[in-house]
Fold this protein.
Amino acid sequence: MSYQPNTYYASRRQQNWSRNQNTTRFVSSVKLGPVAHTILVALMITVLGLIYLTQATRATGYDYESQRIDSQIAELSEEKTDLQIENARLTALETIKNSAVAREMTAPANTEFVE
Amino acid sequence: MKFELHKGSRSRILAVAILLIAAIFVGRLFYLQVVQHDYYVALAAEEQQSRFVIPASRGMIYAKSGNEPVQLVMNQTVYTVFADPKTVTEDREIITSLKEIAGGNTRPEFEKLLEKKETRYQILATKLSRIQADKLKEKGFSGIGFQETSQRVYPEGALAAHVLGFVNTEGVGNYGIEGALNDELNGKDGVLQAVTDVRNVPLTVGNNNVRIPKQDGKNIVLSIDRSIQSKVEQALVSAAERTAASNVSAVVLNPKNGEVMALANVPKYSPGEYFKAEDVAVFNNNVISGPYEPGSTIKAFTMATAIDKNVAKASDTFVNTDLIRVEDRTISNATKGITGTISFQTAMQWSLNTGFVTLAQRLGNGSEITPAARETMYDYFYNKFRLGQRTGIELANEASGTLIAPNQPTGNAVRYSNMSFGQGMETTMLQVAASYGALINGGNYYTPTLIDGYVEDGEYKENPQPEPAAKGVIKPSTSNEIRQMLITARAAGFPGADRAGYSVGGKTGTSQVVKNGQYSTSETIASYVGFGGANEAEYVIMVQVSGKDREFQGARDAMPIFTDISNWMIEYLKLQPKG
């Protein structure tokens, strides 16, 4: 013989409601079925996915920006090197020796030292 | 209707079949995703990730102009223009543009290379500057590509070529500093491993990105002074023309710290165009790689040994008969007639072999070059003056030379009698010059060096003053006496050659060349080693003149080169006369 409970307990909330007849509860007139729920969940997942993609794309965008700046730095540094080489060539001993000013110079006939 | 899978029913068979298929799928997925996990991850990484090498810049090399570093070797990015003839459509425009922009950088008959439509890669022009490459890129020709490479450039041209060496097409340093300090100059390439997009642009997404920064090569500042180097090269070129010698070499160093101020050889080459050299022998640095019998320049070392061992003084005398017998050999003087009782100072001035063989005998029992005398000479020559051993200078291909020890079968009295005047031994010019520094600076030996400091982040960081590698190799009094002997010998031998008011000394050397085991009678090498300054020596200069089947003399051919450089050095270093 099995045990059959014959006493049912109502929750306090249910008891209150039954006691306070003025208590109202909002009940939407729009009823959503299981299909609508599924679509809503799918939409939410899509939105979350889009948010993730937006963030990932933004990070990638920074990569492109960084790449662009790196290229610019490399280009400027190359230009700087070219200018340094040009400067070194213009100040090279051979260039100075062959300059018009140097050609006009003469060796001192005598050198005197002052204490 | 009650749905049941009856045993043997079609539904039950279908269910079992589906379960089996599902099990196969699960099993396969398990194999691929779990068992083969690492393999597929690696495959995916290979597909999604790229590995980039971040090339390290080769260090630059500087010389000094006074106290300021000036670039001798720099790096420049140059471009190679290549074509894929199969995809090239604007042949005529490309040819015109290349002729206009690349000019002399184009390959010979590059027009024909474009016609080889069955090929996919043809180099049209090399070593284009950035400006030239940019102009060509602007044209936007299809099928034309550009490859960047770094090359060494030499703003001072061929200056100090033998000190520098060169970098070959594979980026490896050969000869000189480039060869000796290749690893230090090369640096270490960096690595970037990252997920890339379709255009191969590295992205930050992904967890396995690796970035190892590059380490650029060191920027080395040499102790070479470009003005002194230029003067020395000029003096050697003039001397080569005057004497018609095929090889002329010189080294200038500071006896107070061993720093090499100039080092040059003629014939020279241009490191930027090393591939144009017709004979690879031109790359050899005779100052460090060409050991030879230094001849009478060694007499100063024999004299210093004798003074240091208290067996002789400059004013001591001996009887010169122009001949001296050592065992079964007779040694004679090149200069004859200065006979009778003469001082060792006179022997030094006239470079009389007999005087120095006498000194070697006095290091023994007075009449023979005993084993003890030979041990003493070897100790001074090899251990103290470091003749016959590499100096350790930062240059590739340094030779050691040869100094026969007395315990070797050929290290007999005859050998050591020859060594007393610089024969029967082989040294490099640098060894002799560095040891002369110790002879005249008070007796401290400095290892010759070319490195004066480094440029880091654009700032010149000078090395601390070098310490002597060996202190007191001879007594200060010995150094003072030998210095005075060499000044006196020069003043007497070449009066009026030097500027008045300065202490300039030196010693000539004329050495016979050994050919087929015999001293040649038709070929001699001329040397001169000397020093100069006011109250103390500021520089040591060694010069050598040689040529195949040519007879050169130290006093006639090498000494004038020393004088030319020495007098110029006095002005350049702004040395005030004594007193």
